[in-house]
Amino acid sequence: MPTFDLDSSIRSLVADAVKASLDPYRDILDRMAALLGEAPARRAPERAAAVPAPAVRGRRRRRGGRARKAARLAQQLSEGQSVRYKQGRGTFDARVLSIDSAKGAVTLERISDGKKVVRPASKVLA
Which CATH class is domain 68-125? Predict the structure, then answer.
């Protein structure tokens, strides 16, 4: 009578199920491994490597929208002004010490303990 190994059968079934569920994400996992400096997993022979799309000429991507918005918000503040700022889950009362309108950053002094912090203008409530 042949012996039946239940443990190895269950392991192979679980391995097949995990492999089948991860197949749609194989490209993403390979890219993540490449970013981390690890060698990506081998591709299955039926899957070809992805070819990047050709660049479209004549269209430029607009950049720096957030920086311009933060700079515009920073111009609405003035030194010595009492404000509130958000950091993490909390909101704190503070006083504006200096404004860097080029970066859109504001240096604040927290009123409760005098701590100096630099926050983006988008996190400062006038």
Answer: mainly beta
One-letter identity of residue 103: K
- Is 108 within 8 Å of 117 (Cβ atoms)? yes
Contact 40, 34 (CB under 8 A): yes
**Residue ranges of the domains in the chain?**
7-35, 68-125
Structure tokens at 106: 């504001």
* Full pLDDT tens readout for the chain, 126 residues: 566 688 888 998 999 998 888 888 888 888 888 888 766 555 555 666 666 666 666 666 565 666 677 777 777 888 888 988 888 888 889 999 998 877 888 899 999 898 999 988 888 887
Rounded to an integer, what distance in angstroms lies between the CA atom of residue 101 and that of residue 78? Answer: 11
Measured CA distances, 68 to 65, 77, 104, 123 (Å): 5, 15, 8, 15
